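Bench log, entry 3. Co-assembly request; chain sequences pasted below exactly as received.
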Amino acid sequence: MSAAEEVVAEGHEAVEAVPKRAMTLSTTTSLVVLAVLLIVPLFAKNFIIFQLTMLLIYGLAVLALNILTGGSGQFSLGQSAFYAVGAYVTAVLMEQFNVNYALTLPVAGVICFGFGFLFGQPALRLSGVYLALATFALATAMPQLLKLNFLEHWTGGVQGLVVTKPDAPFGLPMGQDMWLYYFTLVVTLAIYIFSVNLLRSRSGRAFMAIRDNEIAASSMGVNVALYKTLAFGVSAGITGVAGGLSAIAVQFVAPDSYTITLAISLFLGMVVGGVGWLPGSFVGAAFIIFVPNMAESISKGLSGAVFGVLLFLVIFLVPHGARQVAIVSQQLIGKLKKN
Amino acid sequence: MELFTNQVLAGIATGAIYACMALAVVMIYQAIDHLNFAQGEMAMFATFISWQLMQWGVPYWAAFVITLAFAFVGGIAIERILFKPLAKAPILTNVAGFIALFAIINSSAGLIWDFTIKQYPTPFGSSPFLGSQLISTHQAGMIGVTLLLLVGLFFFFQYTRIGLAMRAAASLPESARLVGINTSWMIALGWGMASAIGAIAGMLIAPVVFLEPNMMGGVLIYGFAAAVLGGLSSPFGAVVGGFLVGIFENLAGTYIPGVGNELKLPIALALIISVLVVKPAGLFGRHIVKRV
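Structure output for the full assembly:
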């Protein structure tokens, strides 16, 4: 291979190739994490439980982006739009049509799946920065679209909608926050298992083949157009469910909660957690929830700068995100076991 | 018909702003193959420096030159300190770095100069240009400077040794290194030049949008859009793209019913995307052929 070819080959790799085995945690670790997630709320205050709920919700949204970017190699700055659609579907169904909150989530997921699948069609022609711009346009347009006059009857226009928080069913002795936490945990768990299995399946292999080399994938018989739009659809669907959950948890939806800033946060969460490593999504979610607050408490006037410096520290120390930390610690444990 | 020509003229005037910014965007894209999200904030910071100099009594053109030098050195410093160590990191990590830089510059400028809106002087005056109410002399001056920059860049890249070296480093770094070009410093030089061009854009835009830490937010989005529309590999395309986006935006605001100021941006972006769907490398961009 000549030097020129080598450069072309390495220069345009937008997303690293992550082998699918390295995309998840081992069973033991997963069970430990799950146990911690189950037990912690029993000993925490309501506000902390709420923050943990938000962590799971943002984690889901980051996971969705991770499937799209880490899985199929497509880039999106438009996740906030799908999140908004999910949140609005849930809010409108709950408040205007009195649908049970648990039933609104699958509806939000299916509608967002369709929306993402359709959006994936024109996006097929675009890649790299061009795709970033297209999805970015979607994200900037969404708050304006939600404010449109003829939708105001359902969406409540600029004011948004207030959503009632559900009580624990069957007379279970727990507060609303705690019930919502466990409800979110169950949904998150289901989607996480679905995602892991999806990436291990035939479709997941197709995603990864497209990510690693589109031309080679198509010559191997992968229907590139179908799987690329499918990845968009699945990602949008999961983001929609996350949006729906957030509408219930925050008890409020308004167009300006879903600006491009949200999409950028989700993107940062993915990078910090490690692109293509699903458990990292939740580490990334923790970063985008807690680090801005931390920055605020260090210095009010310079909170943006402090956040930027912290972000730089993370990407300097661990450019591959939480995945790198996980791999290094795994190796350390392996060494200790041998000794 | 008169309404149409007027709107086109007004579009060209706003387009000059976007063209300026798009040039800076293309410049950095040529050097490092990424869009720099912090570009607008770097330009904003440089503009604040020039404003501060003028507050201290430095005349406009002296402040202009000092700011350019500062922006050039600053751009190189940012590359050397922050982004050179990240050169081997994944692309998405680099993008996160740009976002971090954005937050740092924006918040520091807010702390140093606070968030109140400030007047910024123009060297061209703001009387009507050639008797037209739609274009002021400042806007005409801006168009002139943009075109001058474009011609200057063309000669720099086509006819100077260092311009040739930069092009070589951008297109085939490996081979460029073999013929003795210091590719790493060429990237730094690209950052410096992009930062200086951004500073020029900032100083020209500030009289129109007024000076404040968030002044570049909207402009940068249009600048990106213009650069992508024109083709990221072509400075000429970027300038044409800038003017086209300005015209699109004005015509959409005038002729499509129900489009207020709020929907202008989404519509302009939607139009650009439809162009890109037909011509994925932009209007004047080179199509990159990839080998398996």
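The first strand of chain B starts at residue 128 and ends at 129. Strands of chain B lie at 128-129, 132-136.
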